[in-house]
Amino acid sequence: MKKSKTNNEYAGSDGTNWQIGEMAKYFGISVQTLRYYDEIGLFTPKYRDPDSGYRYYSYNQVYRLANIVFLRKQAYSLEEIKDYLQKASMEGRLKNLRKQTSQLDREAIRLQSSSTALKNKINFIESSDYKEKLDLIELVSLPARDYVEIGNEQRLFPSELFYFFPTIVHYTPTSIDFGAYIMDKPSFLTFISFSPAVEEIMLQVKKIPAGRAYRSFYQGPYENINDKIMKMRDLAARDGNKTSPESIHYNIIDQFVARSASEYITEIHLPLVEDK
């Protein structure tokens, strides 16, 4: 790096001083950032030329700036950095680094759990047999399934579960309630462990009991899905079977994947009302 030679009192230990552009380039930060650090008293130049206004930094100052850059990479605020550099002892700084390491480890687990949730969601889409059975209505036996009850549409969009887990919808003649389908319980528990509402979420975990149901798929916008439901009910009636007034829908292809509503794919279950 090009450094300005000088014999002035603001020279570094090797007889050099750095202009603001040189210092910024050396650390990969902007000149504007260094000017701001100067304004708030976090990192001031060793000398400012009274005629030109140019800022000059000494060689020994690079270690303070390196410390600032390091702490910014750890997501410290500028006020926290200023306090840290002014007050912290060596033991205090080591304690702070240990705390930061713990926070980074926790953040790594959180990010991994988010990645796992999205991978499960991708697998949910790719493992569906809708391509082979799009027009088929079949009577099947289904295992018990877990989901988180979210509620109506007003509660759906603020829920983080909506963005990371497949959506399940319960339709009745009088209501529509949304939920998040739990494909893998251990990874789900890890995911929600980072939520401040973990206890509330656990109280909303529900189970759809195992049983027989008519199963089919629907392609298109949700507002037209009732036509497919009626076809399924008609078939059940011809078969002499009684179905629940509730239908359960799994959004396979939704707004997160499809380019338009015409590409939406929904798996529909009509549970049978079995004689006891």
Radius of gyration: 31 Å
Largest sheet: 8 strands, antiparallel
Shape: elongated
Please give the share of residues in helix: 40-55%
For the record, what CATH class of the largest domain applies?
A: Alpha Beta
Describe this entry's structure for a reader.
The structure is a single chain. By secondary structure, the protein is α+β, with helices and mostly antiparallel strands. It has 2 domains: 4-87, Orthogonal Bundle (Multidrug-efflux Transporter Regulator, Chain: A, Domain 2), CATH 1.10.1660; 125-271, Multidrug-efflux Transporter 1 Regulator Bmrr, Chain A, CATH 3.20.80. The chain contains 11 helices and 12 strands. The chain has helices at 20-27, 31-39, 62-73, 78-87, 90-126, 130-133, 153-156, 161-164, 185-192, 198-203, 226-238, and strands at 4-5, 16-19, 47-48, 55-58, 138-142, 145-151, 167-171, 176-182, 205-208, 211-219, 247-253, 265-271. The strands form 2 sheets. The chain has an 8-stranded antiparallel β-sheet with strand order 5-10-12-11-7-8-6-9. A 4-stranded antiparallel β-sheet has the order 1-2-4-3. The longest helix is centred in the middle third of the chain and has 37 residues, at 90-126. The chain is elongated and about 95 Å long. It starts with a strand and ends in a 5-residue tail after the last strand.
Brief characterization of the structure:
With 276 residues, this protein is an alpha+beta fold. It is 42% helix and 23% strand.
